[in-house]
Amino acid sequence: MTQRKTFTVGIDVGTHSLGCAAIEVDTFGTPTRLLNATVLIHDSGIGPDGSKTATTRLAQRGAARRARRLKNQRRRRLKELDRFMMDRGWPIIALDEQADPYYPWKVRAQLASEKIIKPAELQAMLSVALSHIARHRGWRNPFESTASLLEPQPASEWFVGLQQRIGERLIRDFPPDVTPGQVVAALITAGDQEKLRGPAGLLGGKLHQRDNAHEIRRIAQVQGLPNELTTQLIHQVFATRNPRNSAAQLAGRDRLPGQEHLIRASKSSLAFQHYRVASVVSNLRVSRNGDPAQPPTAHQMGRVIDFLMSPRKLDPSWSDVAEVLGVDRGQLSGTATLTADGERCAGRPPVNVTDRRMRACAVKTVV
Fold it and tell me: N or C: where does the chain have the smaller number of CB atoms within 10 Å of the terminal CB?
């Protein structure tokens, strides 16, 4: 009769390695022969260029994807602006081919200061100014529509800081309705060719888009452009894709029969929070006088659900749930079964997390 052999297989999972071993043992469990042993070294998901910062491949891939998407959107936006100007017969002038690197700033200042009589010259200068603004249009809350740029707004703190820095250097004050092009052109005209952009540049960061939108409205006013054309120019230069509801297409569909057309509620929705609390409460069991544990009645379940869904500053415990039910903590079982150390594994019952997070938000209007 062939003797049956016994083997022991061990796996050691480490942060950067995986060890595997197969050992033959006797009837007493003593190792008798090493069959195989190997170690697999892996990078633990760290990217090839992220060893010093522990940046994962997932994070590097996400950063590259966002940068690629941003670049493609910028290229598409600039092409649409060029097409918009060509449809009106305006020439497209390559800014990088100009001998003077500060030429666009001078054009922007001139358009906002004096009226250009010749139509051909005006169209060429408008093309240069709008292309330059579109390439350095500044920051805006992505959730705000471009329609918010059509109305006058106060200058941003970045633009006010730029006026102060250049004003101190030139020993002069600027009028309240000055534009970014006029401020920078004043510095260039004075012969100060200090670097504008970059971390150490004179701009000190980005301007707000409302500052550049103010310049476009000022140019349109000085040059006598129609209001309809001014509105179209602002929408073209500051065009953006609103991220609101962008994740809706990623939501899954309900798998219940007959409800495949319905979209699942996101975890932050009140419907999901109510479902999560109700699913846990439905598994509660209450034992009375030594009888087998029974689920709470519909009325009792409703009281517990309302208690857990109500806004509270402190997180309730299972003892609080037992008090709502009018029983002792030791009578709860099922979801709230006590462990050897006297507490449930999950620690506390579920609550309306969305309400907690929203009330703790620092934005008062959201609260």
Answer: N
- The strand pairing partners of 23, in sequence order, are 8, 34
- The per-residue pLDDT for range 337-359, each reduced to its tens digit, is 554 434 444 567 888 888 888 88
SS (H, E, C) 144-163: CCHHHHCCCCCCCHHHHHHH
Q: DSSP 3-state assignment of 103?
A: helix
Q: For residue 149, what are its two tokens?
A: 């740029």
Q: Write the CB contacts of 214 (distance below 8 Å, at least 6 apart in sequence).
A: 152, 153, 155, 177, 179
Helix, strand or coil, per DSSP, at residue 20: strand
- CA-CA distance, 235 to 216, in Å (whole number)? 11
Q: Is 0.85 surpassed by the pTM of this model?
A: no
Read off the tokens for 281: 């409460």
Tokens 């050897």, residue located: 340
Measured between alpha carbons, how far is 335 from 325 in angstroms, rounded to an integer? 15
Q: What is the largest CA-CA distance in the chain?
A: 111
